[in-house]
Amino acid sequence: MKHGRYPFILSFLALPVGLYTWLVILPFAQAFQISLTDWSGSTNSFDYIGFDNYVNLFKDERLVLPALRHTGIILVVLPVVTIALGLFFAFMLNLGGRSRQGRIEGVRGSKFHKVVYFFPQVLSVAIIGILWKQVYAPENFGGLITGAMSAVGLPAPVNGFLADKRFVLAAVIAVLVWSAVGFYLVFFSSAMASIPRDLYEAAIIDGAGRFQTFFKITLPLLWDSVQTAWIYLSIVALDVFVLVYMMTPERGGPDAASEVVGGVIWKYAFNHGEQAFASAIGVVLFFAALTLAVVSLRFGRREQIEF
Amino acid sequence: MATETPVKPASRASGAPREGVAFNFFSQGLLWLWSLLVIIPVAWIVITSFKPTRQIASDPLGLPEVLHWENYANAWTNGNIGSYFLNTLQVMVFSITGTMLLGAMAAYVIARYQFIGNRIIYFGFAAGMMFPVFLALFPLFKTLQNVALLNTYTGLVLVYIAYSLPFTVFFLTAFFRTLPTGVAEAAIVDGAGHYRLFFQVMLPMARPGLIAITIFNIIGQWNQFLLPLVLMGRNPDDAVISQGLANLALRQGYEGDPGALFAGTVMAMIPIFIAYVVFQRQIQAGLTAGAIK
Fold first, then answer.
1. What ipTM was estimated for this complex?
2. Residues 6+ apart with CB under 8 A from B15
3. How far, in Å, CA of A271 to CA of A51, rounded?
4. Is residue B60 part of a domain?
5. Same domain for B148 and B31
6. Does B92 lie in the same domain as B15?
7. Any one cellular component term from GO for this entry (chain A) (predicted)?
8. Could you tell me if residue A204 is inside a domain?
9. Do B269 and A286 lie within an 8 Å CB cutoff?
10. What is the pTM of this model?
């Protein structure tokens, strides 16, 4: 079997590695290079200007700074809310019920809930964007929430939720949570399935209620999964853009109230023709993602429990 | 309830049942609330898609008096939803086949063969899962432009494959490692070469893993939005489904036919919905599989 080993390995790796290098690795590497120039993107001439783009980036009060602030908010709120809801629902659907024999199982209707909760995960962002834009629409465009609010006599925002500076960011985050919770519910469910049932049964015999079993058994044993979920959601939070592009006025408005880092990169790269500046923002985003992953892996580590 | 467990010590039984009842009520309520939060917007957009334009704006909560199927006809013909479907299928036949073939080949060699650079290639692929795609969009645009593949399906297929490889390779490498070595050794004793071993022994054995990751890639590529938006921007007729819907949403602003937009949205949801209901278990397993060691 030694015979023809290297030709075989080469023949299997050449295409995937070649394609990946050409279309993924090199463009990323080029982005780093571009970020050190003053290239507009449309001509072929450019000069290297060192780190000027990075310095100017933190002076851009019109787009970049609001975007950094909003992405920062999403980066905190999205993981916290999604993980909390995901854990709670997963616990209820898998372990929250008690049968007559005292066995641990999900509450009634678990299967139905699981199927429903996960559904938004398979919808494209385009569909989710169109759907929720209409849900949030102003009353005279037939919005669902505004319509329902005025039907029960509550004052609804006149221009809908997305054209209102006070609500737009929260509205976007709510949609992000809405579409992500099902995924983390299923994710935590499969992790919970690997926790031995006798641990719970022993705890119940000792008189533990559901709050105690959750905080004293489930959560500590799920720590690794929570950490993984945190990293995933952080990356999702940093990449938020398409929803903002689809739903909000001026793709980040009104008045930059829902501007996010991804959207600012988009605007500078494809609308303003400032490719180098856009790349610099992208590089900052990349290092933010990298730092987050490293930090949460480094400091989130806990003692491993084998069972 | 816990109190009915026969071995439960009597001394601790007092507080538990009350906590149980209140908690049950509260948690069942929350569980249903979230289910309704998912169902209501989706069901509402389906209902809305059957309303005439005037009623969509004036009567958001009402039901349509008659079903306005012409919204669907309009979306299919004027909105081009039909051809966006075909475009997407045309791209995905090649991109999914390519992703799975190249991904399986790379993963198999990385998982099963020792050679110099093995680790580097593996981490090179795995690192790709972390890159924010924005960073590469413009250089990628230029790369395709230089080789005249911008605004072509060939270019889009190649890009889909390249951007699906990191997760596919990462997942399948782990999967190929778990396969038993005995069968492979027996095949080698019987005189199978490296290629036959892969195509006739290892690939069939890896079927569960291949199916899970194929589902993952189909959903991912079907829903892809950012890449076609940048790389297929010139000719609106060539748009893939999610991009076509976004165009429709944009046009709806001045053509004023929201009924057709929502009908188009519902049509785009139908194949995904059917696939989801039928393969619900596999899809959930496939989408979350990569995260579970």
1. 0.85
2. A209
3. 23
4. no
5. no
6. no
7. plasma membrane
8. yes
9. no
10. 0.87
Q: Do A126 and B135 touch (CB under 8 A)?
A: no
Residue A63's identity, in one-letter code, is L
Q: Is residue B3 assigned to a domain? A: yes
Residue A11 lies in a domain: no
- Number of folded domains in chain B? 2
Establish if B137 belongs to a structural domain: yes
Are B186 and B79 contained in the same domain?
yes
Mean pLDDT per 10-residue interval, chain B, length 293 residues: 42 47 77 94 93 83 84 86 92 96 95 90 88 86 92 95 93 88 85 88 88 87 90 87 87 74 90 85 70 45
Chain B hits for A93, Cβ within 8 Å: 31
Which of B13, B34, B246 lies closest to A117 in CB terms? B34
From chain B residues 100-129, the ones with a CB under 8 A of any chain A CB are 102-103, 105-106, 108-109, 113, 115, 121, 124-125, 128
Question: What type of residue is A227?
Answer: Q
Q: What is the extent of the structural domain holding A157?
A: 69-278
In angstroms, the Cα distances linking A222 to A114, A189, A208, A217, A227 are 19, 10, 19, 9, 9
The domain in which residue B26 lies consists of: 1-40
